[in-house]
Write a sequence for this structure.
């Protein structure tokens, strides 16, 4: 059986190229049981960091294979 869970990851990057995080490690929120919960968290953290041009967050999906 396969299921998904969702994470919100991101943070403040060192430049607008979004290649290197300023603090080295990303902010990670979750897991969330469905995409709607993750989207609500993503929207909240994105709004909180709206004034920072180098902040970027995304929703990542993780595939889980559960034993039968």
């Amino acid at each position: 059986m396969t299921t998904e869970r969702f994470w919100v990851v991101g943070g403040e990057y060192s430049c607008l190229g979004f290649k290197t995080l300023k603090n080295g490690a990303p902010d990670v929120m979750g897991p969330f049981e469905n995409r709607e919960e993750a989207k609500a968290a993503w929207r909240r953290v994105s709004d909180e960091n709206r004034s920072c041009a180098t902040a970027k967050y995304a929703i990542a999906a993780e595939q889980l294979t559960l034993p039968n």
